[in-house]
Amino acid sequence: MLLTRHGRVLRLLVLGLPLLAIAVSIIGPLAITLIVSFWQKKGFGMVPAFTLDSYLLFFEGVRLEVLQRSLWVAVSATVIMLLLAYPIAYLVTRRVRAEFTRVFLFLFAVPFLVNYIVRTFAWADILGRTGPVNSLLIWSGLVTGPVDWLLFSDFAVYLGLVTAYMPFMIFPIWLSLSGLDRRHLEASWMLGESPLATFWRITLPLSLPGVLAAAIFGFVGAFGEVAVSLILGGTGYQLLGNAITSALNVLNYPLAAAISSVATMIMLTLIVAWYRLFDIHLFLGKIMGRR
User: Fold this and answer.
1) Alpha-carbon gap, residue 247 to 134, rounded angstroms
2) Are the C-beta atoms of residues 241 and 156 closer than 8 Å to each other?
3) What is the CATH superfamily name and number for domain 61-288?
4) pLDDT score of 162
5) What are the CA-CA distances from residue 144 to residues 139, 148, 152 (Å)?
6) How many CB atoms are located within 10 Å of the residue 197 CB?
7) Which of 28, 47, 222, 263 has the most CB atoms lying inside 10 A of its own CB?
8) What are phi and psi of 49, to 5 degrees?
């Protein structure tokens, strides 16, 4: 009995202390940010208070337009990334032999070995007026001069977001698809359903936990983006991350904290919705013990 009790205490220490450290390192900064968002800016600093001035300043004028644009860009970019990531994950799951699956997934992870800011600057060089894309277009005779809309435009921003975050979205979708019980698919085929009908009625609904998880990955990345919008969109292209940076540049820490808190609440709402709507076992599939 004594050994059992000591074993439980030891297990609590081994597992509990790291979890506590992680919780403090994540929840602590978020709590501090939320508290500072209610403080009042005074001169080049701030004073403790409880005021909604920073939130009122955020939800008016240009900053509200930035929020609306950020939501639109994040949602539309997430849809584009899902339309690309799902077929890739599906092909890897259904058409790639098991021994080659890890190789394909590793290839999708290779770009992350390079810092994404470096990759973003590389896109700026590729899409520039003297870059290889414009040079190829001029050489082929399709255009007579450099195409300006390739860089510092919505096209460039969307391209940067897709290439930066779409590979992230392949993994949760693949994980969800690979955990599906093939007996459901075989039963559908035996009942005479076509492959397309089986996909729409069986595969897609059962893979929705992974799809929503992937959508959260993509949305969170695009919604809080700073580098892509600045480098590929130009200095006048403002998203929510740029608004936070601008507030910090003028030492308005309560406003920056208020914007960050709003962004965090939106992201947290998505995560809670995913957790409440779907069974975690459906998402993790075989890893959680399903066979």
Assistant:
1) 36
2) no
3) MetI-like (1.10.3720.10)
4) 93
5) 9, 12, 20
6) 13
7) 222
8) -165, 180
Q: Which amino acid is at 288?
A: M
The domain ranges of the chain are 61-288
Summarised one tens digit per residue, pLDDT across range 124-135 is 999 988 889 989
Residue 190: CB atoms within 10 A of its CB come to: 8
For residue 35, how many C-alpha atoms fall within 13 Å in the half-sphere facing its CB? 8
Average pLDDT over residues 232-252: 86
In this prediction, residue 88 carries a pLDDT of 92
pTM: 0.83
